[in-house]
Amino acid sequence: MPAPDFDAIIIGAGMSGMYQLIRLRQLGLKARVFETGSGVGGTWYWNRYPGARFDSESYSYGFSFDKELLQEWSWSEHFAPQPETERYLNFVADKYDLRRDIQFNSRVTAAEWDEASLTWTVTLEGGAKHSARFLITAIGALSAPTLPNYPGMESFQGRAFHTAHWPKEPISFAGKRVAVIGTGATGVQTIQEVAKDVGHLTVLQRTPNWCAPLHNRKITPEEQAQIKASYDEIFRRCEETFSCFLHTPDPRATFEVSQAEREEFWEKLYNSPGFGIWVGNFRDMLTDRTANAEMSAFVANKIRQRVKDPKVAEMLIPTNHGFGTRRVPLETRYYEVYNQPNVELVDTRATPITEVTPTGLKTAEREFEFDIIIYATGFDALTGAFDRIDFRGTGGRTLKEAWAGGARSFVGMMVPGFPNMFMLLGPHTALGNIPRSIEYNVDWVSRLLGHMQAAGKQRAEAGEKGTAAWMAHVMDCARGLLSMEVDSWMTGVNRNVAGKQQRVVARYTGSAPAYREWCEEVAADGYREVALA
Ligand code: N01
């Protein structure tokens, strides 16, 4: 039987693919990465829309595995912008000479398992095929952009972009009539940046989100020295917190303290950088309806204070979900944008977009003319990137068939019926501060591969029993969360995608430490739930 072309094929050269390549080399394995884009970086390669930046502290986000790298790289801002992150990931690619094992401009369209030879065969767009013993998906959780389905979208004569397919050349908004559709974390970052020099901006909002100030600023030389001296502590803290951020829930419940104390605490959070207001709030804020309503009222008042036109302020205040039950977009003078005379907010729930025209778009009420339309309309999250590749496991069964009743995985990283396939950001893995989860998952997969090497094993398949136990735990974690009552990518809803209209338990909502504990027990137990042969 001919040996496969590679020991392992990795799909994707974002942060997870890059780190996995480094770890596979350390195991002495011959690996090849196939990447659709022309450079490394994944999310930070594709999402070059204006205003794209971290919402987690830069120094908690970068790779932690290399102490030398931590000292060599200096983040310039507490929440770094996309160009800097892309430069950082290229710096890492240079340092480790990663590109020699990465084939760019190569989209994987299919991957098929062959039981007789214990190999995966991967097909690229264009038809080329490559085989490997192991297949590692490093395809991201938010990497399959989705567009609305308005009639006439192709007819638009101006320029139109999805934020995740932003062109590499600079786009000028000066003197231009620009539309932004979508007000999630991406839309908010885009709007506040475009508004700086736009001719006229129209924001088409279907659902307002609860946003909170980012409070970004430059890192001073003193802070830089302090950060570089504290990396051990920074990453230790990320390891201990619920979602791997530097912030962690306050141990107090909302109504354990007086109203004055609550207000003071929330005021402090509102004026502090980063996600503290979301993931560092009172411990019951995302489970207790009354607590959540009071927090929502606090933020609603902030919006009323910041937006001059009371009618516009009310349009920006969410009414169908409470604070933090969807991802909280972090912003810099976002609400003040609506005080500009050249910015208009349109409620597309009241007056839906009916069609895109060659010169702009129409709503149920009006016709608009635009030079540029920006679609900040999000992603087919978590499973979308998997659906776009024709994965076939044992007996030719497709992953789509296996997941027809909802995605099922073993610790988010393996799927029964798909031997030797590992998902670095699969459904039901811990997400949170994603690079922290990526590093853990890459290490877990690499340890399993090392274990197989040592034991002379060639085939690993997650068992049904372990998968059922993991999925039961995933379902348990989601019980009682207010976020489960709300439509968002976090509950698997994307109204632009057929079959994604119903809420499901789409992600792991337990804590990252609990996730790791489960995975560690599996490893300590000799991977009993994984059939090794
Ligand atoms: O996507 P979203 P996103 N007509 O799904 C609207 C991460 N991220 O790209 O809410 C009209 O949140 C849609 O409206 P509705 C972060 O995890 C990280 O903004 O469905 N509107 C919504 O407003 C985030 O959560 C950073 O009613 C339509 C928007 O488009 C995730 O990426 C920065 C529409 C989509 O919002 C996704 O964020 C940015 C239609 N047909 C993002 N279809 C960092 O800081 C959709 N919409 C690292």
Automatic annotation (TrEMBL):
Keywords: FAD, Flavoprotein, NADP, Oxidoreductase. InterPro entries: FAD-binding_Monooxygenases, FAD/NAD-bd_sf, Flavin_mOase-like. This is NAD(P)/FAD-dependent oxidoreductase. It comes from Siccirubricoccus soli.
